[in-house]
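Support reply, case 0932

Customer input (verbatim):
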Amino acid sequence: MKLYLRNGFLEKDDPLIMGILNVTPDSFSDAGKFFTPEAALNHARAMADAGADIIDVGGESTRPGSRPVGLDEEIDRVLPVIARIKEETGALVSVDTSKEEVARQAVEEGGADIINDISALRFSERMAAVAAELDVPVVLMHIQGTPETMQRAPAYADVIAEISDYFQERIDYAQGRGVKREKIILDPGIGFGKRLEDNVAIVRQLRRFAAFELPLLVGLSRKSFLGLLGGEKSAERRDAETVAANLVAVRNGAAILRVHDVAATVKALKVWRALN
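Our regenerated output:
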């Protein structure tokens, strides 16, 4: 795939690996582990050394039932970490935020390369304009509701068709506000307002989104649907299930994998490619 950046592009035959760095006290899998800047930086270094192409830094949990944090608090959590990751590793950095001012400061002051917005530019009025002005790639993710409400009886008649319609509407919205089409990445939002059968359908039918001719990001790492499929109740012990599901996602067109365990993903992809 080819990822168009602010200046230049990154091209790679294999999927890009996006390592998850939650600088939060309440994320669903690694709550509080990397909350201090030093712990976060150490983990970012380890993921970069293991082969992460991108480090995705988030300062606000988006687990089911989570509530928003204030602007200043989110900035204080992510900005120092992003700046140091850019100084000390060779990885790209994405900022996982739906707040326009967090995105702006992360890019302009911290050096972030990508905006990863779970709301697809909906939660913050000027996020699209900011993304266009900064000229960085932006991830448009599908979500039904908000993190606080998304798992309260989600329902779809045809989940793939409805996500496709949503993608088209958000692409049109973004382009209408100056975001270049080649800077758009799509994420079907596995686990964000989805039932078990919806998540399974998304992984199985990822190629249905190929018509957009845009990079597809898949974030299924350690999620609860994998526990339902495999029987593991602890999120932290779902890395084998994550690797298995991600290999299916790659076969079906995923271009970016957002994961907790970078090393396991990189090794699995090497073997899978060799055998294929």
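We compared this against your earlier run and they match. Two observations from our side: The longest strand covers residues 16-22. The mean pLDDT is 94. Please reopen the case if you see a mismatch on your end.
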